[in-house]
Amino acid sequence: MPTLHRFANPAQFTRLSDAILPWLAAATALLLTFGLAQALVISPPDYQQGDSVRIMYVHVPAAWMSLGIYSIMAAASASFLIWRHPLADIVARVSAPVGAGFTLITLITGSLWGKPMWGAWWVWDARLTSVLVLFFLYVGYIALCDAYGAEERGKKICAVLALVGFVNIPVIRFSVEWWNTLHQPASVIRSGGIAIDPSMQVPLFSMGLAFFCFYLTLLAVRVKTALIERKIRRLQLTGYRF
Fold first, then answer.
1. Which CA distances in Å does 100 have to 62, 124, 142?
2. What is the pLDDT of residues 159-195, one digit of tens each?
3. Which of 59, 125, 196, 225 lies at a 20 to 30 A Cα distance from 20?
């Protein structure tokens, strides 16, 4: 726990983010370039879906990120409520717009992928509906945080909302197993091992890592910006003139 508290210190976090930010940005660019080249050029078309399967290389990693970022928000919110970590509330708040963006990408690419496979842009499938609920949770969290601003009471309410909304994450994950849905079952994270061809694994995981590095890059920039804004507000409250 002392280690976690040390990195939760704003000054420590700023020094760490300044050191790793160039590497994260470079890793994002390289992985994204490599993943897209693999997905669009090298990876073969599917024997049933043809070239439309290439949507998977954006859709699936975006779905991973939408679930992962909300899980990070929930963990940060719990940390804020329990241990009062100075950066936990900021991490949750700045992560929300990024997570909402990935969730929107998931919904749009899923619709594009579903049209040739199911013959419809949208169906009220358990997986699709629960992901739509996740998008609304992101939007609701952002709106609530904006409404309360930096009020301490607002921070607690937003943290509680993030924790309550986390109930939807296992619903999304296991929806294809709990209900009879059109959405295909898990192909990567499953008890029987990965069920996709090795030629498709390289671009899929490359894009997943690219999206994760992109999130970390944005997180470092947005947390640093939020810390600067907080410092400016404190100076303004003390009567400091710029």
1. 10, 20, 9
2. 999 999 999 999 998 887 766 665 666 666 655 556 5
3. 59
